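Anyone have tokens for DUF692 domain-containing protein? Sequence:
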Amino acid sequence: MNTPYGVGIGWRPEISGFVAELPGLRFVEVIAESVPAAGPPPDGLLELHNRGVTVVPHGVRLSLGGAAPVEPARVAHLAAVAQLLAAPLVSEHIAFVRAGGLEAGHLLPLPRTHEAVDAVCANIARAQADLPVPIALEPIAALFDWPDDELDEAAFLNEILERTGALLLLDVANVYANARNRGTDPVALLDRLPLERVAYLHVAGGAERGGFYHDTHTDPIGREVLELLAELCARHRPPAAMLERDGHYPPAGELRTELDAVAAACGFPVVT
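Reply: yep, here.
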């Protein structure tokens, strides 16, 4: 990302006033589908851009992991939003959200098979052909693994990144959630990923429910996630890390404390 090292936050209309008042903010991420392709951007985003804050469009509906080819209109929208916001890159998920004409309404995990690698790489290539900027790919948090998996998570991600040349959007909370639910070591995964390819990080809170750890985006960041963030940044500090919050927003003081905790774990300047 062409921006100084620093901390960002997911821009949401509910906290736009709070975000606008953060003096040391380096970047924000906005859900691409919430921005009209023809503009104007939502209130507040243009002002952030004009003061030098990088705005990154984050897609949630491309369904890059679907068996069907990615829809050109969705790629065109993401491209138009990137141009509208002068974004240095865009991001999307290694997941699928529709199949057979049905919309899941959720990000669903792919089977980690060679066939799935072929399908997702083909869709990424289709998207890259029509995007004006690089794309960063985010592995999702998953509550289950498919029974016919042929690759472990690191091998699956590495093959996709190698074949597509894409960047990596690494969600530290997702890494923690998946490792906790699978009973594996999250640090062992970090040691097998190309951390030099990380465009930026996500950090979010979660909670234990029904015997599983859920990446909720509505709970405070736990100590274990912050410790994993610090472990990652000790290995390779990425350009930026951002706080994800979606609903149940706490008072401004608590949000500032979370942002400062992310900054401290990464060794970045505080934004507040």
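The two ends are 21 Å apart (CA to CA).
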